[in-house]
Amino acid sequence: MGKTLRMLFLLISVSAFPQDFAKKSLFSDVIGQNIKKYKNLANYAYRKADLERAQFLFDSLVDHVIKDSYMNNFKLREVNGKRSEMYAFEKPVYLITTAFWVATSSGEIPALNTIADQYHKEVDIVVLFWGPKDAIMKLKKHYSKNITLLYVDEMENTNDFTIKTMKHSLGFPTTFIMDESKRILDVRRNMNHHYEKDYTTSYNEHYQTFMNGLSLILNKEDGKTADPFTHD
């Protein structure tokens, strides 16, 4: 317990901003002050095969550093080649970062398609791929038209710290859940369910996983979650 608390302190000590200042912090700012320390501790945990400690470190980074920061307005490409940017999305965003070579289980994409068809009016469902445009185009047919598929042209983002962090430090697949102002409500790793599970089981488990994350946005839209910027 002592070691756990010390590592938690290391992660949050640099980011102990006054509350008003923290509300305006960008993702790149808060992660930049903590990512090196996090990577060192997490890599050590993985070398020791201590997956529980590694997960604890990730959760601590999210809870005490990333949450309530604002996503940067980094540049993106749609699969048709059109340039875009994160702030072009006006609704809350459910953003999944992944890569074209990452395998999915049988029910994962169909479950995400169902979610997108049900809630696309309330939320922008976005899948951001790392990989060449041609590879992403081949995947497009599997996704609902209500899901926005984007890819990162790393030649356009060679000096973009946000892009590098999302790929090389937080890893993927990872989900970023943001409100309409692009304030990060949560970050979650996407743990693929066992591939040997049948389609129905895979679909249901992924559907529940997606809905669990999406509920952070939907509850806020319904007024069930207090707005931190509202004062009595």
Automatic annotation (TrEMBL):
UniProt KW keywords: Signal
Protein name as it appears in the record: Thiol-disulfide oxidoreductase
Signal sequence coordinates: 1-18
Xref: Gene3D superfamilies: Glutaredoxin (3.40.30.10)
